[in-house]
Amino acid sequence: MAGKEAAHRRREVVLTFASLVSAAAAGLWAYHFQAERAAQKAEEGAHCETDLEARTPPRPYDPARDGPNPLAPRSIPDEARCPICGMYPARYPRWAAQRIDSGGRVDFYDAPRDLVIHDQWLRQEKGVAEDRRVAAAIWVRDYCSETPSWVAADAAWFVWSPKIIGPMGRPEPAACATEQAARTLAEAKGGEVLRFADLYTRFRW
């Protein structure tokens, strides 16, 4: 009789211990899930927040500083920051890009990918002025030249290859002024040649 009672108690202890372990595991899973979801929401919030404009405001047009044509490419100030990643485009002259809105304001980017992403955000965001949502001119730097000049984005040719690494340490589309230069680079890097419109299907906001 005593043996049966002892066995019964041992069984109760085992079941209680198993229940505690199960509850602890469930609690840990729930904590992990909530923490992961909170991190995801924070990341989404950082990506989609409407204060992109406040964090990195566009630079207004100044004829005395920027010249008589408000749609011409402008010099990148050393302190200018990319509105998407926060990097300093002036430090990456072969990759830099800029978007001028119909109000004459300009945003500078460290690479064409961020320009495309920001342009999509501006088009969709209802909290910014209407003329901010319209791109009047978009310029990219000629990556294929040793002395990169500005090229209108619609006229440029882009090369996408996992071997072409941009300022963010990841593959980026490299702009070239001519189709021949782009095809030469694509052949050398095992990449594909794209037009500017193609970047909008490749990189989504």
Could you explain how this protein is built, in words?
This is NosL protein. Pfam families: NosL. Keywords: Membrane, Transmembrane, Transmembrane helix. This protein starts with a helix and ends with a helix. The chain contains six helices and seven strands, in the order αααββαββββαβα. The protein has 205 residues and is an alpha+beta fold. β1 and β2 form a beta hairpin. The strands form two sheets. Strands 2-1-3-4 form a four-stranded antiparallel beta sheet. Helix content is 42%, strand content 15%.
How far is it from the N-terminal to the C-terminal residue, by CA?
Answer: 72 Å
Gross geometry: globular
Query: Mean pLDDT, nearest integer?
Result: 83
**Total number of distinct structural domains:** 2
Give, in spatial order, the strands making up the sheet with the most strands.
2-1-3-4
Structural class: alpha+beta
The radius of gyration computed from the alpha-carbon positions, rounded to a whole number of angstroms, is: 27 Å
| Main sheet overview | 4 strands, antiparallel
Question: Which residues form runs of ≥5 with pLDDT under 50?
Answer: 23-34, 36-49
Beta-strand content estimate: 5-15%
Strands, count: 7
Relative helix content: 40-55%
Number of helices: 6
Secondary-structure element string: HHHEEHEEEEHEH
Q: Layout of SSEs?
A:
Layout: H1 2-48, H2 52-55, H3 63-66, E1 97-101, E2 106-109, H4 112-124, E3 135-141, E4 150-152, E5 157-160, E6 174-176, H5 179-189, E7 192-195, H6 196-202
Antiparallel strand pairs: 1-2, 1-3, 3-4, 5-6, 5-7
